[in-house]
From TrEMBL:
Keywords: Amino-acid transport, Cell membrane, Membrane, Transmembrane, Transmembrane helix, Transport. It holds the Pfam family BPD_transp_1. CDD domains: TM_PBP2. Gene3D superfamilies: MetI-like (1.10.3720.10). Its main location: membrane. Residues 14-209 form the ABC transmembrane type-1 domain. Belongs to the binding-protein-dependent transport system permease family. HisMQ subfamily. This is Amino acid ABC transporter permease.
Length: 220
């Protein structure tokens, strides 16, 4: 494997990691918002469901959840394609999304708790029910207060995509292992390059969230 081939291999790995990250981020944000609504719901059953989910998932190692999705879902006949690589990718997205959603939920819930009670009372006074007040009054304000902690959760998830390499998903660590197998003479540069790739990706994501946080402060 030439140096050019090593770089191309890493480029494919970065692309695979970004695909995993983007899809998992979207699903985890949506699921996390739903769970946050359940956690603050006035209906006891909804609160219980949200609490149990968050408690169980937050105290479960991500790798165990990944194992369950990759090996347990096929055992339950849950498949999305006839191609093993596609199934493995989707299972990884599901695992990352389910795991990260529990932390996103707590971030959103902490944001909701910062909104003065008077906001909810004013919403009820103009005839909005609980879910309408959340949708139109509470959540739009809460989201602006949680940009920084949300960035921390998603940056952790970006690094967590490395676990997917153990299940034949082409991402950065998978590319690193392939490169080391083919070019054992440049192990140290490959390892340093891998660390640099993660550093650059995390810094770039951090800059994006810093920009969003500044915009959110202006909007408040």
């Amino acid at each position: 494997m030439t140096t050019t081939e090593v770089l191309v291999n890493f480029a494919h790995g970065v692309l695979g990691a970004l695909e995993l990250f983007v899809l998992s981020a979207i699903f985890s944000l949506v699921l996390g918002a739903v769970l946050a609504v359940l956690r603050v719901s006035p209906i006891p059953v909804f609160r219980a469901v949200g609490t149990v989910y968050v408690t169980v998932v937050r105290n479960t190692p991500m790798v165990l959840l990944m194992f369950f999705c990759v090996f347990g879902l096929p055992f339950l006949a849950v498949r999305f394609s006839d191609t093993a690589a596609v199934n493995s990718f989707i299972y990884a997205v599901i695992a990352l999304s389910l795991y990260t959603a529990a932390f996103v939920c707590e971030v959103f819930r902490s944001g909701i708790s910062t909104i003065p009670v008077g906001q909810s009372e004013a919403a009820r006074a103009i005839g909005l029910n609980f879910f309408q007040s959340l949708q139109f009054v509470i959540l739009p304000q809460a989201i602006r207060t949680v940009v920084a902690p949300l960035a921390s959760v998603l940056i952790t998830m970006l690094k967590g995509t490395s676990i997917a390499s153990a299940f034949n998903n082409q991402e950065i660590i998978y590319a690193m292992k392939n490169a080391i197998e083919k070019r054992g003479d440049i192990v140290i540069p490959i390892l340093l390059g891998t660390a640099l790739v993660y550093l650059l990706l995390n810094l770039a994501l951090g800059r994006v969230f810093s920009y969003l946080e500044r915009k959110a402060v202006i909007l408040r």
